[in-house]
Backbone:
């Protein structure tokens, strides 16, 4: 269960969202600047809403009324940033282990490495990875911190066609293998159709509607047209 | 070191010890101050910045005099240290304190610049992976600031090695205890027939400064080579 009801301000931009979704994988869909990434960062604790409440699967992460805010490091959310953010001085292995340094569960590490096809890359530094490989490492790193939910920010952006297909395939695999609550930020329809169960349409800091992914095709055209008209 | 006299050798070794201890002791508080200035906004930040830079701006004699007033036998802290048999006035430890105070701003400036150059988004990413502030600092921020750290340490060591004004004011010139290389050099210049010794110590000072700078450059090059190989 994803429960978001909050408002935050960044400069002149006001983001105001209220949604509840039972979907296992929810996509936040909309044009650039509509507030998708800000929403994700508010859930991760990197931005603090002015008011409201954020809860995932019944676990309250932020509640302004209760003056409760779980610190970023204790939210247990696997965040995959759009700009990847691998640690440049650490090898792929050390990047992957960063979120679980004392874990003795090597099978978990091996499973993630196998699932994401990272076996041959473990000794490399991030500057020796292709865009698709770096994205896969970032996904693996987020998974290995034993997250309660995954937050993916445009996981296929800035990748060429082959790398895009490669990462998409791995993300599909993850969705099949792991039953993790996932919030995906995207402005690409095929990404949403492949990875999400439900879609929240965002426009200029407001939620337009939440709908099952099966209804997304028609709504996507409507949403795009409405956005264009609004401008 | 056959070409140095016994006294000159002692002055050199004392200066190396004083500079090493001064740099090592200044490093932790300088790191903390640099991190505070680079990563936090707080009331009085500009005042703290200025206060930390004071030893760089003030005449060294003034710094030495302040140290004497505070850490001398009649000073507020000096009396406490005396009672604890930890006297530092007119001791080599006092020379290290003076050198450390003078090198401190250089370390703060170098480290602050280095910390500010680390992408904060990486620290955010580390936090989302469950790392606390200590782990983020020692695992991400500090390693990524290594170049600035090494450069700052080399600069601070060279500054501490060459410290003169604050040292002579605070701990005077006691052979084997506080007569560091720059003080010995100054006294040789004041002594008839001391030019030969002064020239030798000048060469030594130049060589030590070169070794500190080149050592830092080699360390950084070594680090870069390791990065490329891996």
Residues:
């Amino acid at each position: 269960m994803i429960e978001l009801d909050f408002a935050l301000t960044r400069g002149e931009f006001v983001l105001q969202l209220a949604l509840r979704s039972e979907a296992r994988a929810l996509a936040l869909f909309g044009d650039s600047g509509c507030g998708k990434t800000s929403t994700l960062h508010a859930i991760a604790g990197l931005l603090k809403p002015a008011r409201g409440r954020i809860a995932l699967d019944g676990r309250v992460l932020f509640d302004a009324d209760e003056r409760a805010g779980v610190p970023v490091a204790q939210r247990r959310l696997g965040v995959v940033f759009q700009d990847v953010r691998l640690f440049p001085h650490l090898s792929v292995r050390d990047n992957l282990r960063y979120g679980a340094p004392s874990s003795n569960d090597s099978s978990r590490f091996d499973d993630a490495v196998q699932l994401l096809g990272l076996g041959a890359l473990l000794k490399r530094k991030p500057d020796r990875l292709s865009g698709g490989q770096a994205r896969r490492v970032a996904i693996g790193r987020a998974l290995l911190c034993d997250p309660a939910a995954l937050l993916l920010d445009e996981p296929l952006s800035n990748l060429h066609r082959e790398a895009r297909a490669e990462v998409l395939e791995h993300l599909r695999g993850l969705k099949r293998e792991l039953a993790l609550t996932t919030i995906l930020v995207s402005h690409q329809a095929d990404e949403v159709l492949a990875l999400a169960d439900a879609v929240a349409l965002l426009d200029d800091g407001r939620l337009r509607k939440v709908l099952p992914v099966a209804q997304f095709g028609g709504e996507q055209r409507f949403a795009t047209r409405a956005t264009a008209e609004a401008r | 070191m056959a070409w140095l006299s016994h006294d000159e050798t002692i002055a050199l070794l004392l200066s190396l010890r004083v500079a090493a201890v001064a740099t090592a002791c200044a490093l932790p508080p300088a790191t903390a101050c640099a991190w505070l200035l680079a990563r936090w906004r707080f009331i009085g930040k500009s005042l703290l910045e200025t206060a930390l830079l004071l030893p760089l701006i003030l005449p060294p004699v003034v710094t030495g005099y302040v140290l004497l007033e505070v850490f001398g036998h009649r000073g507020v802290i000096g009396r406490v240290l005396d009672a604890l048999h930890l006297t530092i006035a007119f001791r080599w430890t006092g020379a290290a304190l003076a050198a450390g105070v003078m090198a401190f701003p250089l370390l703060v400036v170098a480290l602050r610049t280095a910390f500010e150059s680390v992408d904060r988004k990486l620290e955010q990413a580390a936090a989302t992976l469950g790392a606390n502030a200590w782990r983020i600092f020692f695992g991400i921020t500090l390693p990524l600031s290594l170049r600035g750290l090494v450069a700052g340490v080399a600069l601070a060591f060279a500054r501490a090695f060459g410290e003169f004004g604050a040292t002579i004011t605070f701990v005077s010139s006691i052979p084997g205890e506080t007569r560091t290389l720059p003080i010995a050099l100054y006294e040789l210049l004041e002594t008839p027939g001391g030019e030969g010794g002064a020239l030798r110590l000048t060469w030594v000072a130049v060589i030590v400064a070169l070794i500190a700078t080149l050592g830092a450059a080699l360390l950084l090059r070594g680090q870069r080579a390791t990065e490329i190989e891996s």
Notes: DSSP finds eleven helices and no strands in chain B.
